[in-house]
Amino acid sequence: MLHKIHIQNYAIIDELEIAFSQKLNAITGETGAGKSIIVGALGLILGQRADTSVLVDKDKKCIVEGFFTAKTKTAVTTWLQQNDLDVEEELVIRREISAAGKSRAFINDTPVTLQQLNNLSALLVDMHQQFDTLEIGESDFQQQVMDALADNAALLKEYSNYYRQWGQAKKELEELLEQKAQFEKEADYNRFQYQELEDAGLKENELENIDEELQLLNNAGDIKAAVEKVYYVLEEGEEPIVQQLKSLQALVGNYAALHPGLAGLQKRLLEAQIELKDIAGEINGISNHFQFDPAKADELNNRLSMGYKLQKKHGVGSTNELLQIQQQLEQKLQAVLNIDTAIDEKQKAVNDNVQHATALAAEISASRQAQVKPLQDNINKLLKQVGMPNARMQVTVSPSGQLTANGSDAIEFLFDANKSDRFLPLRKVASGGELSRIMLSVKSLVAQHMDLPTLIFDEIDTGISGEAALQVGLIMKKLARDMQVICITHQPQIAGKANAHYFVYKQPVGNKVNTGIKQLQNSERVTAIAQMIGGEKPSAAALENAREMVEGD
């Protein structure tokens, strides 16, 4: 509920504050007094675009604040929590516009985006203006009306879950089928590449090891000659080094007892002799193993050549990279085998979800169909009540042939204004005034089925008077039993039904004209309504008529 609005520096409003009743609020005033300006200011806190031309004083910013009581509305509380905003007893929405055109929005003093403001305001206020009646001709709105009357909320929630899962499963199935087609397209080539690597039978680091082995083989003769020469010098030459060291060690030994340093040198010569003899033995052993094997070299060269060709083909530089490619190809080939199983499972998910969704859509459709006649009867009754005795409306709920986000029905409101039995889509044939009264009638019917926000009607009573205006007032009065209704009107019959009556007026302030507003007391209401009936100086009859309107309830 909107219990207060504060407006500062907007159009010809310097500053004003309006505290609203919880039930039916009527706002009246002369044409041009500023009623539509109040609606425009209200539109700012509902997320409408800002225009700096509305600033009266260019040195001050424009501020519009709306104070709501909405803690009992589950949808509002949930939205605030989802957007990390405080849930408090009073919900304050503020919009500020600077002279430079910069606009800022706040919810409970927390900065928010314009989109967030739009989303929240839709849960708080339903503003219906004279030229906003086209909504009733839209299929989404018509579907919402039927579902509200049929109490389909729980069914639609369950249906929406299956419909969403069906759509997701269909998308994933299509991706799998595309993937399979791509797999099949590449399968033969991947199989050839894999088989080529499989036949090669490469081992980890094999090509690198072959390269080292070939270098050894190709240099086998030179290595053998080198080690044999070393062995010859150490053990078999004319004066073998090992034998010379043995003699030198013996020579020093003859005098070792005579000098303490000679004993150490003798020992070192002995150690050197033993070490060189050991080296000669190892060299001789190595020499015996160095034999150049042409067949082995050819075999290794052929394998290395094959490996290098595979590396070049796959653009890699090591054996292990080739083995990694082989593993990846194997996984792709395995995926071809596994994807059919995945496709079967996903197809089952598609079938299961569409089966559940179809069954629920049929149930939703049946509940909508059950509301067709009651809605037609009630709407046509209300149309007569609001001054459209020859108008009739028909509702069609027919199969659309496919599942949509809201079921499988095509819903259309049809209209015949003159008992011609030619029913055509409402959006094509109803006039603006007719649409306004139809919308009011529809909202009065669905109000008790939906958690509607505060309803604001801005001059939707244009083009009616007399008994029709009275009936519109009665409908609004009935609506206001369960929710807050704010109505800007020129009709005395409607103003007379209000629980709170506000009068908008212009007043000179210095060289400027400002808009003011005040809540009228009973006697003031009688005078204001009498002036709406009979002009600025109402007759006694007009005053009496106005008194009956105010006190008639």
TrEMBL record:
CDD domains: ABC_RecN (cd03241). InterPro entries: DNA_recomb/repair_RecN (IPR004604), P-loop_NTPase (IPR027417), RecF/RecN/SMC_N (IPR003395). The keyword DNA damage applies. Pfam families: SMC_N (PF02463). Keywords: ATP-binding, Coiled coil, DNA damage, DNA repair, Nucleotide-binding. It comes from the Bacteria. Residues 1-507 form the RecF/RecN/SMC N-terminal domain. Residues 166-220 form a coiled coil. Belongs to the RecN family. May be involved in recombinational repair of damaged DNA. PANTHER family: DNA REPAIR PROTEIN RECN. This is DNA repair protein RecN. It comes from Terrimonas rubra.
